[in-house]
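Problem 3 from the worked examples.
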Amino acid sequence: MISKKIKILFSFCLVLGLTGCDSFLKGKPQPPKIVEIQASDLECVKDVQADFKKLVESQASEKDIDDSFDCLYRTLDQFKNRAEGRTNPNSFTGSELFIIFDTFFKDAEISQNATDNLLVLKKALLGGVENEITKSELDLLKDYLKVLQVEVKNLSPYIKVFTFKKENGPFDQKTLNLAFSQLRSSLKTLLTASKIPRAEYNFEDVKQLTTSLNIVEKQEDQELLNLVENVVNLLAGTEPLKSEAEYIQSIDNFVDVSALYAEALYTGMKFEISEKNQLNRVLSFTGRLIDAFENSLQYTKTRQLPVKYLDPIINEVLKAKIIPVEVSEPTFQRFYKMAVIRIFNDQKNLDPVSLETLRPVNFRKIKREFHIYKAYQDMINSFDFSPKTYLMPPALQAKIKAYSVTPSLTKMLQVNKLDQALVKEIALGFEELRQEALTKLPILYRNKKYILASSQNTAEVNWEDVSRSHYVKMLSRELMLGWGQVDPSLSLYSANSRMFKEDFVKWYNDFKEFAIELKLFDPRATDNGADNFMQADLFTYAGNGDNQLHFLEVMQFTNMLLGGGAEMTDDIQKVMIAAGCSIPGQIDIFGKPWFDEKCFLKNIRTNSKRFFSHIYLFGNYVNALNEQEYLGFYTELMGVARLKADTVGRVETADIRAFSLLSMFIDSLFTIYDVKAPFGEVGPEEIRASYPRFKNFVAEYVKKPDVAEKLKDWSKWYNVCQLSHSKEEFLQEAFIFLVYNGRIPEKSDVSLLCNFGDIFKFEGNVNRRRILSTFQILKDEIALGNAGKN
């Protein structure tokens, strides 16, 4: 935008400087017209436009700049010394200037409106009135141009930076620092040299001037002008600034935000978990952006920022692909407003369209969550992971336990100027994340996937693994804060902090549109999130089937979805594409290829160690199967996972996701309940131990009409066994029977000697393949492979 400002000033000087013509020459000579200014005196003007073009392209030398300004000085001198106004020989009115422009500079197409706007700018820069320019003001203009000349030379090496066009980059951080440091200095110098702080000149005046002068000719120029206008209105407001201090603050705000935008645009910054220095840059960027908004003139004066100016800025950020999400602008607008209202607001149940401003309560909660994230990440970074450093989980836990967060909290108080109450909330959030990391089976990652295994504490993890785990746990925290019922103390581990089914359904519906565009949810889905709630309640380590989700369950399930199902699916698809399994011309609803199932089957087996690296006991089981056993296991597993039965022979994304999640659900249960030899199998005692988590589920399941029909004679069977067994015990043993046999027991399955022993007889143990028959029966209830469900 600075190039546009320079062009405005050059235009102003040129139109004033090229007015040495007959009606305005000294003595106002009669026809024939006599021009006393020699053409040779103005010959240099032809080169100014070319020099200006070189300046905009960062190709102008200091000599080019000096030559252009020298020409402007000579032209102004000619104008001052050789021309007079019709009304007053020592000044020129707006109408007189327009006649000159219209008569002698038709190609410039300078309208009366543009002339008037130039005089408004003149008043702001030099003082005086806005309907004329005096000869004494021409001297002031010349003095101002001398200041501008120096600053143009200072800024000239960085003009391409200020175009904010990605194709003009990249630029390293050092160059950007120099560019915006110079911009800050130059704008303040030009401000001090002008009378703008004493004039009510605002961005609307600049906009009218650029429009009337036809400076904005291309669509991209108009978009840049609109972006700058929205940034200015967001940070400084729309009212004219009242003092030099307000102008200085506005310059600082504008330069700070512009520098951040340029950093994100030009330096290849990646908003992802990949490398320590990269993530530190993102955290620094985020902290500075929060500070820039909070320190803006608008916010310091009104304690609010209007989102109507933030929305178009976010749209430009999306267009520039700075944020790595492929979603439409309206969907992202709704998503970010929903997040602000649900997570960072004092009223969580408002409609996102009602969000008009960002207020102190929003910034307070945003800062709390940011500093929790950063403090915990600083701890991870302090462990000094080198690129090839791996830690065993016990060693990692020892470091986490020994780490003191006190210096970070002290810095928040003394440097970040956070209040004591806020720092206390940050400390609580940090400690609750630490608490999870010190559990018997903490959330750990390997190869971007969430590890589920009873022997997971023998896994080696690196910086990326631990940082990824932290990131997803923070997402889980925001889910709990935004949509759960949270104890007033903000302790997420409190018994009063939990999510009920209706809370989870609300989150699902709020997030659904955004998730569909991100291709996280299936657009064919007919459920409302209740099935995902059930999966979290039954199949996470902490799940207990009590029809409510506590913080550990939320964290573990979120990691299953993102760090298991999603990552495993992506990994499988990459391998299948490379292996040539794609069916030509067949693309699924997620924009991914359909795969030939024979090829898919073969490559799952070949790459099982890679695919199941996070559930490696599952992988070991698969590797131990012979070809016939593997075919049977795969067929049953995919039979549960497959979205539609009529697609046998082909595999789509939804099938792979269900396949991935089902394998994790199975190994989550085996991790918890497979506690005695032979390992890899569970017997009646171990299944019996799992029944409490499935008790409520079973109670609801037996109420289904088709199930109830099968069980209508149970009360009669129970009468046979009631001397030794309660009705509750009867249901428990029937559940074990279901796991063993993959079907609901019938009367003939009841032992005639049940009053003297077990109700049912169980032979052998249940391995990973045998348990699939249970999932097949319950498939519709847990939303795996059910058409249209996620």
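Problem 4, a separate protein:
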Amino acid sequence: MVFGILGEVIALYGNIWLLIIVLGLIAIGIRYRRLYDMRYYLIVLFIMSGYIVMMLYNLNIREDKMMQYYIENEVSVDVSGTVSSITVKDDKAQIILKDVTVKSENDMDRQDDNLSGDHSKAETDKKVQNNGCNIKKAMVYIKGDISSIRYGNKILVRGTVSRFKEDTNLGGFNLMRYYRSQNIIYPVYADEYNIIDKSYYYISNIAYKTAALLKKSIYRACDVKDASVFSAMILGDKKNLDEEIYELYKKNGIAHILAISGLHISLVGMSFYRLLRHIGLNYAISATVGSSFIIFYGLMTGMGISSQRAIIMFVICVIADVIGRTYDILSAMSLSALIMLAYSPYLIENAGFWLSYLAIVGITVVNPVLLDEYKKTIAKRDKESYKNIEKDKAIQNSFIKSMIESMIKSMICSISITLITMPVIMYMSYEIPLYSIFLNLLIIPLAPVIIFSGAAVAISGLLSVKVATFCSGIGIFVLKVYEISCKLLSMIPYSTIITGKPMMINIMIYYAIFIVALILIKTSHKEYGAVGMIIAIICLTFSYHSSLEVTMLDVGQGDGIVIRDYRGSIYMIDGGSTTEKQLAKYTLVPFYKAYGISNIDYVIITHMDADHYSGIKEILEEDSFKINNLIMGDVANKSDAYNELVELATKRGVKVSYISDGMMIKNGKFSLECLSPESGIYKDNTNEVSVALELNYNDVKMLFTGDIVDSGEEYMKRRIMQKYANEAAEYDILKVAHHGSKYSTTEEFLEGIDIDNALISCGEGNRYGHPHDETLERLISAGANIYNTKDGGAIMVKLGMTGEIKIKEYVR
């Protein structure tokens, strides 16, 4: 399995020369060591197989010119395919189509009324024989009633095809990679649809209807909050999951219990299989019925990645029972991974895939080593205290001692899983819930209670709501225990440690050292092994930042700039958007965590337009991140929004200060000096009183201008001329005012300064047309290199100790 994945990784992130180097090293090793064992040739075979599978898959999903034309020109297209999944929330539906054909209306050469009325299968087949783009799967978004659509129907959709959004900031969620790992390549936004082949998958539709029926049963018996958790844990339905509960579980590292995982499949599948054996059915019948039942349950719950893995391993387990062979969990795990990767090679980019398999590795590989060392330590201690054995005999045989040992073993298992999955958790969520190891000692043993209670509620609720309500009692009690435990742990200091997003090289070094440390422990060198694990964790969490870093975030139509000075202090200039909803939740806070920021020292709001402060307001309202100081422009026209933000910050314990021309924030060699506005100034247009700041560090200068225009820009220019004795000030980097509007960054202003680089923050396809061509022409005439967030995502600037400047766009 490992070498097959290595082949896929080389194909995805490397090139043919890397493959040749890896195979060459293996060949040299075989030759030098004279290793003619077949196992070493199998390694080569698996690497080559993984490489070939990924390369063939890449060829299959490569975007052709016709699809590119459809997307970039927003051409109305006809998309046909077979329904393989249906998800409904409110009046919106997400339908996954497989074996998809995409054609434009002209390609189809048909009349506008083709989507109305019934069509024979022969007519439909004739239509789709024309050339078009064939893709494996597509996600179709439909509004309105879709009750007539069934699994297995072939539907024809008219709409527009697009691309899934990629992350444009550090910490952002990459929707394209997420769906690509499930073989879903494009989203389609439907205007209308028609069923062109009404044949359907009988079993899949029964599973879908059964899940819907059981969900209604749960919601009839429980309140919405508890029902949403039961539905998530029993049916895999997280669409209506209580958001507060999800965030609470996620923060404390127990959100995994909300997913249908190997725990659920093992409990449900093995319980049913053993019941069949107990009532006298033979192995073959029990295995067949049990496997069919668990596959049906998987269809009911959406066949998530963990479910697929667990179902394959369950089937292998019962087959081993039938043929009288010993079940080897690592072999079953490897086979299941190879099957899943052969069908969906890009699962190697899916964090859920890695967590599911690494948890198994933690239980079956790491845990036995640590547990064996624990047993050796206990045996050695008991041998040394043999003289006191009679005195301690009562204690040793006591129930309490057995409970303590059981808890210690569970803790060792929890530590084993944490150690092996920690890099992936950090890479995915950028933080570690420190006490989750202890919390899982309570959570995991009680999970079966919720599962069986929820199952009883769902089934009994079909007959009697009163019985279902009674069955829910024990499950709801355990959920309350979960909630209270999470809230109590959240109150303890350092319950969550923000680690930042580790680089891939850090993760590779961690696992390399971790494996060596594990071998040392296994070979009775526990002291060296323990030191090795500590070194591995240090390597994983180590991060290096150049002396000063500035990041202009891609916030859509808005502004958001983060500065980390050479001493590690964090400054944020603005943080708002008019196009991105919940900017703090989906952009700002994820960036802070991925960047390794635990608190912001200074937030400076240049002026009170929503596209400059909405995200900061959201943080203060939800108290989702710690801000130490809020700095506002010292102006006379304090709007209601201005006063509301100040009041909100004061309520959260944030120190509020006011800044105007001549004031400065200084930290050693680093300084931010205010060049505008004048103290107490009043202007009807708030853009004219934007805070303008000059950054100085090691002879490197940057100018941040907010949305400054007209008289504000003129005042800033005069202030710069005064400061530099009427000589043209040299700025290495200019943050272009007002998102590149033609009404700012005028020719007169640019004549008074020399700039090397210009950074523009604006949203893709914004209604203002920013940046305007006139502004771009003026910047080019001024000799500036132009960087734009709408084209390149976040813009990252690194300033070295000796004044060198590196500018990089996140998506290029």
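Solution to problem 4. The longest strand covers residues 76-89. Residues 138 and 186 are 5 Å apart (CA to CA).
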